[in-house]
Each structure stands twice: as structure tokens, then as C-alpha cells.
Amino acid sequence: MRRISSGSPFEDKIGYCRAVVAGGFVHVAGTVAAGPDVPEGVVDQCRSAFKVIEGALKEAGCGFADVVRVTYMLQDRTEFEACWPVLAETFGDARPAATMIECGLIDPKYRIEIEVTALAPAQG
């Protein structure tokens, strides 16, 4: 098992890591927009979260084409459709199984949280 940190202060504070490589998969924790200035709009927050996820996947040796499962969590389900072009652009023809959940997030400023599972590169 391998743990990947993004360096977020919340990883130590809450007791988690950005991703874990185990059992042939890369499990990326739920990810919100990052940085000191969180964008207000759901689309920009979606892009920001994908940048953080992309960094974790790269460190694990894979990318969005290896994602097999994605979960989108939004405070307001009516905002999800605005994200569809970003999702299509991110995954292209490598379409993962997907779930969208409407729920409360850790802070009301966040509009979307994204969690993915990807195939880990073969160990050889």
C-alpha cells in the first residue's frame, strides 16, 4: 500500500491522505476546489478539484483515462448540468461509472466535491 499526500494541512488535521494505492487501484479522496481563493462558481470549482485529482493520479502513475469510478457530490443538484462539459472534456472517451449525490459539504462555499477510483499501473 502506498499513500499520496497533496500537502493540504487538512490531511494531518483530519487524518486522511489525498490518495491511497492499494489492491490494484488508486483511491482518491473526495476533493474540493483548492487554493487560497476558492472560485465561487460550480464549474470553476469543478475544474480546480480535477487539477488536484490529476496531480494525485500522476503521482500514482496513472491519469484520467484510468479512472473506473467517479462520485460527484453537490450541494445543489441543479448545478450539476453546468459541469457536464468539464466532465466530458476531462474523461473524453474513457467514461467511468459515475454517481451524483446531492448533500451538504464540509463548508457552504464549496459547490462540488469529486472522488475517483482508478486502475493502478501494473507492478512489474
UniProtKB/TrEMBL annotation:
CDD domains: YjgF_YER057c_UK114_like_6. It comes from the Bacteria. InterPro entries: RutC-like_sf, YjgF/YER057c/UK114. Transmembrane segments: none annotated. Signal peptide: none annotated. This is Uncharacterized protein. Coiled coil: none annotated. It comes from Brevirhabdus pacifica.
